[in-house]
Design goal:
This protein is α/β, with parallel strands linked by helices. The protein has one domain (2-233): Spore Coat Polysaccharide Biosynthesis Protein SpsA, Chain A. The protein has 8 helices and 11 strands. Strand 8 and strand 9 form a beta hairpin. The two termini are 26 Å apart. The model has no long low-confidence stretch (mean pLDDT 93).
Amino acid sequence: MIFGAILAGGIGKRMDKHNIPKQFIDLCGKPIIIHTIERMLAVKEFDHIFIAIHSDYKDYLKNILSQYGLDNKHEIIIINGGRERIDSVQNVVDAAYELNKNLDDVIVLHDAVRPFISKTVLINSIATASKYGACVAVIPVVDTIYFYNSEEIVDCPERAKLCNGQAPDSFKLGILKNSIEQLTEDERKIITGTAQICRSKGYSVKTIPGDYQNIKITTENDLIFAESILKKRGFK
C-alpha cells in the first residue's frame, strides 16, 4: 500500500493576528489544511491519507472537511497527533502498520502548512522511496550560510554542498518503524526532521528535487507570499 500522511498536530505556535492553529488559517477562501488535503487527494496512488490532528481539534477538522465536501473521502483517516512532531510521526506509523502490517509499504509524510506541494514531487517521492527505502525533497541553498556564536561568524560552509530540506519525507514503513523504535529519549528531544530519524540509525536517505513554491507557512510574511502564489502565479 501507499500511505500519505499530513502532520497537523501543532496547536501552540500561532501567528499574532490569529487565534487558531496555523493549519486552519484562511488562505484565499479556504483553510490552509484544505489546500494541502486537496493536493494530496489529487494523487491517486495513495490508498489512504492519514491526518494526525490534536484531539482538541478533531471535531473542528471534521466540520471543515464536511464544509468543503471532503468528509466522504474514504482515503482520509483521522488519527490523534502527538505532543511533538516525532510523536505524531510514530502515531502515523503505528496506524499504517496496524492497517496492513507490510513493512514494504510506502509512507509519505507531509506538513499541513505546506499547501503547494505538487503532484510531481509527491509521485517522485513515492517512486524513490519504493526503490531506495527513504527520500526527502530538497532545494538548493541560495543564501550564504554561516556558523556563528553569540558575537561573531566562526565558519562558512561550502554552499554547493548545502540544501534546504522540505517535505515530504518518504519511507518504506519498515525502515521508519525500525528507526523510531531505536530512538533514545534524548534523541527524540532533538529530532527536527523525519529524515534525521533514519539517518541517525544508519539508513541512507536519497534526495529528490523539491519546489521553491512548496513553502511552509509559519509567519505572517509566509502567508502574504502564499496569497501571492495563489492569486498571481498559480501552480501545477
